[in-house]
Model the fold of this input.
Amino acid sequence: MKKIIFLSVVLLLFCGISGCSRDEDVKRIDLSQKIDVKAAQSQSSGPPLRIAVGGMITPKEGFSYYKQLLDYIGEKLGRKVEFVDREDYAEINALVKKRDVDVAFVCGGPYVDGHADFGMELLAAPVAYGGTVYYSYIIVSKDSPVDSLEGLRGKTFAFTDPLSNTGKLVPTYMLAKMNETPETFFKSFDYTHAHDKSIKAVATGVADGAAVDSLIWEYANRTNPEFTSRTKIIKKSPPYGIPPVAVHPDMEARLKESLRQIYLNAHNDGKGRGILKGMMVDKFVPIDDGAYDSIREMKQWIADIRTVKQ
Done:
């Protein structure tokens, strides 16, 4: 196995939404249901509600809208909300497991891990660009002659996070299908811990290629294409269940339902709709655990292959 040569220049350069879900996977509930305002306000005497948003979930330009959403949730709930920012999926999962945070925006892969580990529970999922799915984009420089994943053999590569679905699991699965691993296929690779940083790494020539979240690439390409315009997509994965909003399964039932209704109804008033528009989210909807089965299948397939090779 090749020794991983870390791209330390990435760290120097970068200090600095959101299994395929189909309509039948979505649980239908009455979105006209009103929140019990008195019940929600009675919760205001408790400690602040802590909501985690990882730096991998949104580019830095989108963070202000997530903060606005959290303020909106606090207003609707009648309770102070604290924004918890992390750049590590494993850490966010650990915070949810220990109940050090109450709610988290997580990636599909970490949700699958958290669900298996401690029963992490789905609260809602965003509808973005018309659906509740997203993709892994394999990107290279716009001027690169590389036009396929095979063309990145012996090149430098940027992953996002070790637990990221689109930023690590999917490209690793693609390589496994080629009887390769990141260690055998790439000259070197590193983790940037943010999809927008991976995009910038490719755009500026720090890395020859990267695997990024389609939601992040599309958001950046519409709002600030400085770096996306200098990249091109050479491979698009099948669709997977979109990064959801998740909670610990032991969250108090009344609070859980109040939160769920706030998310599901945010698009029904002007303020909530404006915030969602800035996030490029149409609305939040219920989503079934089965939407993430294709991610589970990838994880299991890779695990089985590794077992056979040992």
Remarks:
- Residues 1-44 have pLDDT under 50 and may be disordered.
- The first strand starts at residue 49 and ends at 54.
- The two ends are 13 Å apart (CA to CA).
- The chain has two domains: 8-15+133-240+299-309, 23-131+242-292.
